[in-house]
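General statements about sequence and structure are easier to judge against a single worked case. For one protein, we set the task of working out the structure tokens from the amino acid sequence alone. This step matters because it turns folding into a mapping between discrete strings. The amino acid sequence and the backbone structure tokens for this protein are reproduced below.
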Amino acid sequence: MSNMALVVKNLESWYGESHILHGVNFAVRDGEVVTLLGRNGAGRSTILKTILGLTSKRAGSVEVYGNQTIAMPTYKIARLGVGFCPEERGIFASLSAEENLLLLPEIAPGGMGLDEIYEMFPNLYERRNSPGTRLSGGEQQMLAMARILRTGAKLLLLDEITEGLAPVIVQKLGEVVTSLRNKGFTIVLVEQNFRFAAPLADRHYVVEHGNVVEVVNQNELTEKASLLNEYLGV
């Protein structure tokens, strides 16, 4: 099992008194791309936050590259090589795009240099001196992703990266995910946009009411299409 990047078993999670996750199970091998699909409020974003220890209470088992992290503080989990791109992006408004990129500490060797990042995100090179507030939604999303690539993280948890963005930007983000996959990154995508996610992922985990209710492999997409429609209401 040494090639497992992430193994989640019987994961439960709470925000205050609210019990959100009820025994989530899924696993991701090194170098795989998987998605967590489901309707809004199903618990998909909470799964990412719980993996990182960002909920008020959690129970069960989370192994990151073979390390049990259920009792670890968030900063230690990040140091195992986990990068999180939150839905709210968290760009520092008063800093330029490049300052945002340079701000993050290195958590593991092998983080991408600025040249490599600008090659992957030419828009960010053009806007490198613009303050965060001046960037479009798509540029902010690219910056939020580029920033975690600087840190040396190898397991990327990406929360709703295509939400509210123009199709041309969504297409660009799809190319970026493919490129990261080819570079050996492991990626967990929380995604509403199934068309975006379908060609990118090895496996889709369908989440409903805080549980994984269905697993669909890449080669089963056609035969399970109607089932997915039922769950996702697309």
About this structure: The domain at 4-232 is CATH 3.40.50.300 (Rossmann fold). The mean pLDDT is 92. The first strand starts at residue 4 and ends at 15. Residues 167-182 form the longest helix (16 residues).
